[in-house]
Design brief:
The chain is α+β, with helices and mostly antiparallel strands. It has 11 helices and 10 strands.
Length: 327
């Protein structure tokens, strides 16, 4: 380990104490990153859960430190966890119950007394349906849904909404700024959500604002994004450009999607709706097809669309499909 000159603050011996402290933190962090091979990245999304984790935070931090970096999994029995954290087995069980109800972990019984513990995502995220690790472009829609059902079941999801999105895009060969948006683009967004039920224990029944804040903070969504090819039987074209602005200067209008709700319900029983929404060109929907281009702002857009679905639908008029397709 090399101690940098700034450690002794030789350049400016009159430097304030806050600068000295922050310098040491920077040096220490750099040394740790260079020399420590095992560490866990604690993402900011966990902050939303802190008011509800209570003392179970101790156990959650241990699972983070013990987990494999790439997979977020670890193997510990209740008795071993109790010994490590110096609490009773009953306390460990209570903490595990809380973390499970918050959908922060999933535990499966392992060999003998050990259990397989998985850390679950703490923010919404997007998976590209045909290029993710569990998908192939050769899958048809029903096979794709079967794959998605496994995700739904394994992650203990509670709800499913499906969006059929339409947008006019520029042709790929056109690089002119004034080129027309005349290429129809269709995609499906399958939103799988995990909603916590721990608020029943937190006695929010008489605190509607508290319950609303809790549900917003702890509901997590997985958005599975699927581009529809032009030869898909449910591919549509919209007559008019959306004109009603709702948020982020992006406009929406609803259309009647040809996709049948019954088709999805055969596999995903908790599917609430298949909603057709035409979106203006202020937001490029093709960004969702690439993990490199899909930003946090893009994900926040889908989160708002999903969480405000009823409100958005109540404000929109239905637009017509070309050739009356879908009626």
């Amino acid at each position: 380990m090399t101690i940098e000159k700034d450690f002794f603050n030789l350049d400016n011996p009159d430097e304030g104490s806050s600068k000295i402290i922050t310098d040491q933190h920077a040096i220490w962090k750099n040394v740790e990153l260079q020399n420590i091979k095992e560490y866990y990245m604690l993402f900011n999304g966990i902050g939303a859960y802190l008011p509800y984790m209570k003392s179970a935070t101790n156990l959650y931090l241990f699972y983070c430190l013990a987990a494999k970096n790439k997979t977020g999994e670890s193997w510990y029995s209740i008795d071993t966890l109790a010994d490590i954290l110096q609490v009773s087995s009953r306390t460990i069980n209570t903490w595990n119950d809380r973390l499970r109800l918050l959908h922060l972990i999933k535990r499966q019984q392992g060999v003998r007394k050990s259990a397989h513990t998985f850390l679950l995502p703490t923010r919404d995220y997007v998976v590209n349906g045909y290029s993710g690790p569990f998908m192939k472009k050769s899958l048809n829609m029903d096979e794709l849904l079967e794959k998605i059902k496994k995700i739904y079941d394994c992650l203990d999801c509670t709800d499913c909404n499906i969006f059929h999105l339409f947008q006019w895009r520029k042709g790929k060969e056109s690089k002119k700024a004034d080129a027309l948006y005349n290429v129809p683009y269709n995609s499906l967004v399958i939103s799988l959500s995990r909603k916590c039920n721990i608020y029943m224990r937190e006695n929010f029944e008489n605190d509607l604002d508290g319950k609303k804040d809790f549900e917003k903070a702890t509901t997590r969504r997985i958005f599975i994004y699927v581009e529809l090819p032009k030869d898909d039987p449910d591919f549509v074209e919209i007559e008019d450009t959306p004109s009603d602005f709702l948020n982020n200067n992006v406009s929406f209008e609803e259309f009647k999607s040809p996709f049948s709700l019954e088709r999805f319900k055969k596999v995903l029983e908790k599917t609430k709706s298949v909603t057709g929404i035409a979106i203006s060109t202020q937001r490029d929907l093709t960004d969702y097809s690439s993990n490199d281009r899909c930003s946090k702002d893009d994900i926040d857009f889908l989160t708002e669309l999903d969480s405000r679905l009823d409100e958005i639908k109540s404000k929109l008029g239905e637009v017509k499909l070309k050739n009356d397709k879908g009626k």
